[in-house]
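Tokens in:
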């Protein structure tokens, strides 16, 4: 498989997940609970596909990304990367809990 496929696919999955999340918010604000649930579950599915593709790409092709900008930008870049990595580790846990609460109709906690 062509390695150039993965960055494009990952971008499409992220964009689709984002659009589905926005759609889900609009749907719940208009009272369409079932459609909201479906949009949010599809968004989570797109995020899972992104994660699987991203991890496969980086581990299979052993892609290592290193900072290549000016020296003054290294510290801000690494700080941003650290925050991104920590959030990337926490968000799936929070998303799973939120999905579970929503499916169990525990609205106050889900919200």
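Residues out:
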């Amino acid at each position: 498989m062509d390695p150039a496929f993965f960055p494009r696919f990952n971008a499409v999955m992220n964009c689709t997940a984002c659009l589905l999340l926005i759609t889900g918010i609009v749907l719940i604000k208009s009272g369409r609970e079932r459609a909201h649930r479906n949009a949010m579950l599809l968004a989570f599915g797109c995020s899972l596909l992104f994660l699987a593709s991203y991890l496969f790409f980086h581990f299979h092709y052993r892609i290592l990304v290193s900072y290549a900008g000016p020296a003054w930008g290294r510290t801000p870049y690494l700080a941003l990367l650290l925050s991104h990595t920590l959030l990337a580790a926490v968000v799936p846990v929070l998303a799973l809990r939120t999905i579970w609460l929503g499916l169990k109709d525990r609205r106050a906690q889900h919200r």
